[in-house]
Write a structure and sequence with these properties.
Elements (H helix, E strand, L loop, with lengths): L11 E12 L11 E19 L5 E7 L1 E5 L5 E5 L3 E4 L4 E5 L6 E9 L3
Antiparallel strand pairs: 1-2, 2-7, 2-8, 3-6, 3-8, 4-5, 4-7
Length: 115
């Protein structure tokens, strides 16, 4: 792996704000202990999200502004641009980078164990 593809172990220049959270067991009894959350995420220019897995944390994200680069441990990187969406399930392990000159802002919908 080249130096630029070494997965980051910590977040840098990344913020998250939970917009809404709904405990799901009252809606779907089989989903006890799970929450549906809407979060606004921002990654500043030069910032990144650390290497992480989506095992037990399925996500759908929608890019509101900027370009988010998503890289996987096998060295593949792809860009998500404004207006694009992605679904990330249990088999996804990756990290994110903002290589641009403006903040990346995206809406993330997820089902997880914490509110």
């Amino acid at each position: 792996m080249s130096a630029q593809l070494v997965p980051p172990t910590t977040n840098k220049g990344a913020t998250v704000k939970t917009i809404a959270s709904l405990e799901l067991s009252s809606q779907i009894p089989e989903s006890s202990g799970r929450y549906l959350r809407a979060r606004m995420r921002t990654i500043e220019p030069g910032g990144n999200g650390a290497l992480h897995s989506h095992r037990e944390l399925p996500v759908i994200l929608y890019i509101l502004s900027g370009t988010l680069t998503v890289c996987t441990p096998d060295g593949n990187c792809s860009d998500l641009r404004e207006g694009q969406a992605a679904a990330e399930g249990k088999d996804v392990t990756h990290w994110t980078v903002n290589k641009g000159s403006m903040p990346v802002r995206y809406l993330q919908l997820e089902v997880g164990k914490e509110p």
